Amino acid sequence: MSSEPHKKQMTLRERIFQIIFESDTPAAKGFDIALIIMIVTSVIIILLDSVVSLKARYGEAFLIAEWTFTGIFTVEYLLRLYCLNRPWRYARSAYGIIDLLSILPSWLSLLIPGSQAMLVIRVLRVMRLFRVLRLMEFVGEGHLLLEALERSRQKILMFLMTVMSLVIVFGALVYLIEPVEAGFTSIPKSIYWAVVTLTTVGYGDISPITPLGQFISAMMMILGYSILAVPTGVFSAEVMRSIQRNHYSDEACPGCGHEGHERDAKYCRLCGNWLNEEDDDPRRKEIDEEIETLKKEREALDEETKRLEQERDGTTPSHDGSDGPDGHAPPPE
């Protein structure tokens, strides 16, 4: 017997999945590169179509090209749903929503003229470039940053609430100090000035003219430089923790299409689907064996039930053929 593991025959859905969602075969990589070229080209056409002079000259060609790309992207989106075991989970994911939004405006333009301008969202699909060019380490870093941001959100939220309190207090204070001629006509207007000053942007459209107001403005600018280090430090600490424990692979889930699993993961953390599409799920083998055992037990139980019913009805056949209906020898004549 061969020592190599058994590889199951791939079905049509599995082949489509490998081409569309994976990038470890020439066909899959070629598909993704062609898809990105079409995405970029379609976005360029949308941008050029917004130029009046170009639209007047090439408007018909732009329209034909746009509907051609829309048809291709529609088929591609339907194929993505077809080859997944849990298509609606993918449809609700970020990539699924972007894929849908990239084709929806064209179809809506048949009912709502002008809505096709929203097709520029199609450029967001170029994010698949990371996976196509085998730059999964960058995708992994993206997951790492998102996870670090998720863990530090409470601290950052508290920081933002503190900043909002500061700008409200300083805005109201400067509103009381500065005259209306300086531009501080209301507290909301003063709060706008406080935000611009605290973030050290300094548009210059509103500025205090009194010595006390200018002193408060200077203190706010210095404070703005100081508080920038707070969220940066919190986020950096979480990123360092994530670097130490997170490692991601480029495998896409056959069930929902989710990417960015840990390298030693065997099942999808979102839908629980088996990740290695080349081999059978060991859980399925265990379930099949358990089902087979239950079938045998059911057959044995049915046979036992039938025998007991025969004994109850007095129809149990004898072993030597000489017993009567009740299992005793027949009376002599």
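(ticket continues) Second input and output from the same batch:
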Amino acid sequence: MAIEVVPLPLPPSADASKFADFGREVKGVKPGELTPEELEEIKELLYKHDALLFRDVDFTPEQQYALTKAFDPSSENYGHGNNKTGETKKSILHPDLKTIPRVPQVQLIGNGTVYNHEGLAEAKLKHPHHKTFHKTAISDEDEEKGATRFYRWHIDAALYDLNPPKVTTLYGLNVPQGTKQVCRYDDGTGDELTVPLGTTAFVSGKTTFDILPPELKSLAVRSKVKYAPHPYVWMAPAHAKSTGLGIETEGLEEALSELPPWEESRLKVLPILWKNPVTGNLHFQVHPCGVMELLVDPLPEGANKEGALYPEGTHITNLGEVRDILYKMQRPAIAPPLVYPHDWHERDLVLFHNRGVLHTVVGAFKPDQVRAFHQCNLAASDEPVGPSPEDVKKWA
């Protein structure tokens, strides 16, 4: 049976015109048993569509690791390092992940207590909740009525020392069903999004770039971001914005001198725009919570300076200013019509292009709602490729 692809089912909130190329359900193959030819086709489909869904999949941790690794055969370590949390319990990731003992690149995530699972006698899982991370919180009363928030928009990446993974695989084993929730942005816009319980929400980095006005496209194509050392430890004491898109600037970040040992040479300075290896499209790929500085190149020779931002280039180290600029660029892309909230079913496998989308956990579970997922991504063997000189000339 040949590989068949069909568009993902979009919610009524989605602007279908913005999802023409985003996301496909794949039928006719078993993702754990792909032939070399099928694997090449799946790779191309992923880079073209950024997210692939396989339904009713039987999938072992070994198969998940093998499929993830197939996108980058030289990769080996889990994307955040095989100790997951930068050798410290102070990392904001620490409560969220449990390692499958025999396949340490695959993590168990979810909610509630899971017993006798893939070599783990007992695993206590905690679904990330916005109350532990956001500056403001939804009231208990409103939460009981079904109100919720995006937790943290991000790319799966250590953002220090290791390169951002190319692909993430997510496999749903136990998926609690429940009434839909209303995701509130609580940023003064009135924006809300009806979402399935415990959805994973995605936005396209390509769309994020495409919808920018010309002056911000010019800024994006000329800019790099510098991430903090051990960013998940650095950001842990701070509070996120109500949209989950970045951090409020309150001076609460861990002092650089108090972080685990770090080296300047291992800091990550990455372009804002990452080039798709198949389509050549530019994807706006910034993890806003971990960014410390913004570096902007000058306009190329002969470019029109009228209306341009920082035409001579600049290096912005003021954290509040850096965050304000990035928020202005990324916030339009998480508007309700541009978000794909996946409605999980048991034995769903989702592959997503981690260098092409931003995603976030959403929602809240009660302690007795057991949810178990396997997640795998691998620190890449190379850094993302930024805009070419031709791209800079075109968009700057």
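Agent notes: The radius of gyration is 20 Å. The chain has two domains: 4-204+343-377, 207-332+386-395. Closing as not reproducible unless the customer responds.
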